[in-house]
Design a protein that fits this description.
- Helices cover about 30% and strands about 30% of the residues.
- Strand 3 and strand 4 form a beta hairpin.
- Helix 1 packs parallel to helix 2.
- The protein contains two helices and four strands.
- The protein has one domain: 2-Layer Sandwich (Translation Initiation Factor IF3).
- The chain has a four-stranded mixed beta sheet, covered by helices on one side.
């Protein structure tokens, strides 16, 4: 199962903020797909995933990027 964030056409820091909100509200085990259409937004979303230690993959299509972030349990959520 997955959720999609369509951040195409939005400038930084909005795509990054949308990604942070999704990470906070999505349950572990789901995939977050972030759609962006500029390199700056792509980089900020990737930095966000790296900062919290979540694995991601990047797919580039003709005029957009898809970033797949696997929402695992975060270190701060472990009991």
């Amino acid at each position: 199962m997955y959720i999609t964030i369509d951040a195409r056409g939005l400038s930084c820091p909005i795509p990054q903020q949308m990604t942070i909100k999704a990470i906070r509200t999505t349950k572990p085990g789901l995939t977050i797909i972030v759609l962006v259409d500029e390199a700056g937004a792509r980089d900020s979303v990737i930095r966000t995933a790296r900062a919290v230690g979540l694995p991601y993959t990047l797919e580039k299509n003709a005029d957009e990027y898809k970033i797949y972030i696997l929402r695992e349990e975060l270190w701060m959520e472990k009991k």
